[in-house]
Request: fold
Amino acid sequence: MRYLPLTQDDRQAMLATISAGSIDELFRDVPEDAVLDGPVAGLPLHASEMAVERHMAALAAKNLSAGAAPFFIGAGAYRHHIPASVDHLIQRGEFLTAYTPYQPEIAQGTLQVLFEFQTQVARLLGTDIANASMYDGSTACWEAIAMAGRITRRKRAVLSGGLHPHYAETAKTMARFTGDALAARVPVLVPEPDDAEVIAAIDAETSCVVVQYPDVLGRIPDLAAIAEAAHAQGALLVAVVTEPVALGLLEAPGALGADIVVGEGQALGVGLQFGGPYLGLFGCREKFVRQMPGRLCGQTVDADGRRGFVLTLSTREQHIRREKATSNICTNSGLCALAFSIHMTLLGGEGLAKLARINHARARRTADALSVLPGVSVLNSAYFNEFTVLVPGEARVVVQALADRGVLGGVSFGRLYPHAPELAGAMLVTATETTADEDIAALVAALQEVLP
Amino acid sequence: MNAPNPSGWRPSIGIDSSEEIAVKTASGDRGLALEESLIFELGATGKCGVDFDPPSAEPLPGLAKFLRAAPLDLPGLTEPETVRHYTRLSRQNYAIDLGPFPLGSCTMKHNPRLNEKVARMPGFGDIHPLQPRRTVSGAYEAIAQLADWLLALTGMASIALSPKAGAHGELCGLLCIRAALEARGDPREVVLVPESAHGTNPATAAFAGYRVENIPATPEGRVDLAALKARLGPDVAGVMITNPNTCGLFEPDMKIISQVVHEAGGFVYCDGANFNAIVGRVRPGDLGIDAMHINLHKTFSTPHGGGGPGSGPVVLSVALAPFAPLPMVRRDATGVARLIEESDATGTGHDSFGRMAAFHGQMGMFTRALTYILSHGADGLRQVAEDAVLNANYVLRSLEDVLDAPFAASGPCMHEALFSDFGLAEGFSTIDIAKGLIDEGFHPMTVYFPLVVHGAMLVEPTETESKAGLDRFIASLRSLAERGRAGDEALKSAPHFAPRRRLDETQAARKPVLVWKAEG
Reply:
């Protein structure tokens, strides 16, 4: 077996050293009737690298990859061009095969990356500080709600209807078990986001309002107005960003008054990967630092006075505080944070702004091309790189029919909200810098075939 | 210093520095020991390593009020500068690719590169989680194949694949237990956790809304069965047991534990962090457990990446299976793998406790783990457990004369060897041994965990270390143990040869500097 270095002679010599007659002796604590006397029955035996690669390649070949089709899917996971150097650098063994940096003297590479990442994220989100990552945007969102509860000592959160339904469902799952109350709603197909309804739902018991920016219909809420209303009641504003590229163009949520900003960092450096692993971004005001979940990297000095970095404030964390920890999170998304950070370094602030403008321009081009089709209209008054399209009939059927023609044309709200028939005629269409004019033409042509 | 030094090279800094000619370089670098500034000191906002065509349209008029007031202040670098920055930083890291990484409980084994290649195939790496199902049938099939293997290896009834790491898997298991108890109208408040448990266990139980009570360990390093029995009652929702446990020992009473917990109406959660010790030799399902997470980034070799991503699928008993989170991939009557996002006509998912995260799990980890599993096969996986356990016992017996091994008399260990700091000279502790290992060119073992052993040193060599490599590691650890027993002062200031000396963690925590700010 190519991954196992011990030879049969090694094994015999080692058994002799430890005075054991056989390997079986080492498993003597296992109850006899629970010991398997050979390899698990009915399963294949070991295979060569070539054979395994062939098997996996055959499975991969059954999937239509985004790069092989006109592609307009977003809704919380975005396809962007990732510079070749990003994937090269994250595959350096020193990054790829290192552990969480518990021994800082020999982990300064990872630690400095995390410090740079935290700074990049904080500046992007407009927050004072940021942590070293969470699993993904949806779990970061729940952690933010839980954190707001600890800070305000209130247990009622108001969720905007524009919050990604998976994020809202994740929060509902947790709230059911923690006793938090969530005021959530299904979005309404109108051009403007539900700022007024959200503001009206805030009361003196509200811990936080959770608002996605841009929202799941692609609309852009007025965070400053919501922040003001929340703060007037002693509640916090949690802003959720599922497309960080938008912040190259749009004002940072922290600058608009958001107290906690969480996000999905997948769009930069990480890739689609069928939903994971992704990258949870988490930033907040500095005064909340001791209520934050997750790892934090901080600057310090070594015994010779040289600058260095360590994991810090770990008295918040499970391995120290156990049941009193701010979260149970341990392993997070270190390598995805590295990919995000490298991509962000390649871009810089100006590069991200350019990338954002191109994304928006591609979305405009797409929206303009679709809105001239008979029976088709674009809902939004404003959007960044995705927008809601109203089609005649069921959007779910339209999306399927497009896929039959080799076009990945968007996400139907029927799939996102299976229990909301009033949304069935809408779909979310996304464009990025990867969207070519030919892709738009292919989408338009396929829609013309599909629509009555 | 008695470390082997065949080249005769002597460091210019470190414990012998008083005897050295001080060599100061103008750059601050020393040969291949390269320092690296922060991107905020190297880059500029206007610098960019990506070329763009100009945008083809101006922003929508409706967007004007949302635009940034000031440019985003983030430094950029060109591609050559970027590659150099991260390559130089990478050289300040220790990694499995450089040598043994014997962190107990963490299972730092070799990460096969075929796994990386497969995960990057466009048919896996470049597909969207919300693509129409018929365009991603191969992805569902890959997930189902992984599920088939994990169920066969664990002997369990069902599986939830969406948890994103071990602790998230623990949460999944506990939420299944809560949902099951609530479904039978018997909500309970307490989860019992042995004091030797990983910190995530009590943290997860609290996160899931339970009160946590500790169960003591016996002097032999096992769960105190009598204490557990005495505490069971109608308020106990379940117990969380790590098996093999964090002392590196198999819990021989596991079946009895499962039985008494079930008799008391509770459920048994097994922390599967240490599954590597028994994969292919013992099926946890045969021990009567109800739920167990599997860290794909431990037993199934997906890379740790400096702190994740992980993946924590949870296998479930018949009793808990109906409550598994949505979405789920299941084979239909004809064997075709399908994604179930909502409870379907057959009732699958009807009792699900709900969604744990957006989309449906860590696909990038699934493809890597499946590749690893297919490479090993049923025979290779069994060999994994055997070699992992053999390597750990070899370390244990090779060092028990110089390092205190508190449970050595309990018999063979499983996949990790546990030592304490007993016997070290006055004023010397585990941290000095650990930092000394850094100078020896090794990553330290897990230190000060489990908490039930004073100055614990938990060594998990894994099966991917050769005998020659283990002999080198043992020789170094033996030398350090002897120096620690003799009170060699130079150990107190180790490491001397790492990119940094010991770092001031107190200062870091007292006045946290978490983001870079320009000086002045």
Summary: The longest strand of chain A covers residues 206-212. Residues 84-343 of chain A form a domain with the Aspartate Aminotransferase; domain 2 fold (CATH 3.40.640.10). The CA atoms of residues 100 and 331 of chain A lie 8 Å apart.
